[in-house]
Amino acid sequence: MPESTPRRTQAERRAATRAALLEAAARGLSSHGYANLALERVARDAGYSRGALYHLFADKEELALAVVDWVSELWDSEVLQPARAEGEPLTSLLSMARGHARLCRHDVARVMLTLEVEFTGQDHPVGSAIAAVVEQLESEIAELIAAGRRNGSIPPGPPQRLTAAAFMGVLESIGIALAGQAPHDVELMERAARGVLGIAPATDAGAPTGD
Amino acid sequence: MPESTPRRTQAERRAATRAALLEAAARGLSSHGYANLALERVARDAGYSRGALYHLFADKEELALAVVDWVSELWDSEVLQPARAEGEPLTSLLSMARGHARLCRHDVARVMLTLEVEFTGQDHPVGSAIAAVVEQLESEIAELIAAGRRNGSIPPGPPQRLTAAAFMGVLESIGIALAGQAPHDVELMERAARGVLGIAPATDAGAPTGD
DNA sequence: GCACATACCTGCACGCGTGTAGGTAGACTT
DNA sequence: AAGTCTACCTACACGCGTGCAGGTATGTGC
To answer: Which of A90, A126, A199, B206 is the most exposed, having the fewest neighbouring CB atoms within 10 Å of its CB?
Structure first.
């Protein structure tokens, strides 16, 4: 939003509008996808007109790529880094699952899923961008799985790449299935994560049983 | 495809073209989504022109609804019915997981995921249609979970509706993650399914370990 | 075999969305 | 304080896709 313009420097204005547009674009992409997203809506949503948008971004594609970049960095700092801080591979993976569950409340994570689904099969720059991000994440996951299998905390199973892909998919799907839910989600996310890894569920006796 | 027209009755022609258009539309929806799907492409893909399409379907919406119906019935006969044939709830659920893994090779299952993602949040007739289908499936899954928990084959856990939603999500995500893969997918699908249900992995010793 | 119905096609009007050009008001330079 | 630069807006041209109307050819009832 352009606020009441209390005498700001140009750089500040630029950064502020850019951020507002990026956030609006992220929300738009998350719920409407790329092709079905009208830039008029994005700009209007952020409190500007399409002119401002085209002044800050070359075209629709560049805007989407910026969003992908932003989301990717968010995921990296909010989920990946904390997970890496854990020493043990399995603990790292479960930490990722919990972190992702938290992130999904801001519906930012939905952007990834939406774009991934929309572009799989095509070869569009935006599609390649999220594909690259996902690929990167899956590599990291695959390595953790390998390490966990080596030190015995994760039992053997299907090939690492496949398992990693499944792990990633589970994170995404459960994330959207439970977006904006009660803290149950963290437990469900962990159960599912353990499942793909082939690990027996944590011995929880006090879990709620019905609905 | 219109074939070399070896003297067919009108009903036959109608049915044949309708089927061809439906299949092409399903493929199109699966890879391009609804909004981004050009009917010219669909018709051309099926070997006809847009005129034929508008002759058999009132508009784009009706076509999409027909596809949803078709896919829903396919899922029902190929996955749900066999699963229901099993007596035990847990066995039924795992059967569903395996059946879905098989179906995903025909990329028909992708249609559901694509449309679901595209329309969540909107209130478009097509969105409501797949939402209804998914809702129906989740109900069925929830009941199976409840039954399994009652007879002790499935341990207690988060509320049934949530668990069912997660189960469904896992089916979809793993389905697309492994579309067109080797038979590993069935095992991975089962592991993940067991995971959301909170069940210890099957004691498999002979599974491949690396990639 | 003639009139009719139906499968299917081509051409047109309209809406919507992107990208661009030209204009205004506020910020930086000297 | 005058000139320039930049954030931002409005207005237009263009492409693309949907839906419809009018046409041809092929099956169907009498």
So the answer is: B206
Chain B residues close to A173, C-beta within 8 Å: 166, 169-170, 172-173
Boundaries of every domain in chain A: 60-197
The class (CATH top level) of A60-197 is mainly alpha
- How far is C-alpha A35 from the geometric centre of its chain's CA atoms? 20
> Could you tell me the two tokens for B181?
């893969």
Residues 122-181 of B with CB under 7 A from strand D: none
Q: Residue A197 has what pLDDT?
A: 87
Per-residue pLDDT reduced to its tens digit, A102-128? 888 777 778 888 898 888 888 899 999
How far is the alpha carbon of B15 from chain A, nearest alpha carbon, in Å?
Answer: 30
Which long-range contacts (C-beta less than 8 Å, at least 24 apart) are formed by B47-54? B47/B1, B47/B2, B47/B20, B48/B2, B48/B17, B48/B20, B48/B21, B52/B17, B52/B21, B53/B21
Residue-wise pLDDT tens digits, A164-190: 988 888 888 888 777 766 666 778 888
Nearest Cα to Cα of residue B35 among B123, B119, B140: B119
- Is residue B180 helix, strand or coil? coil
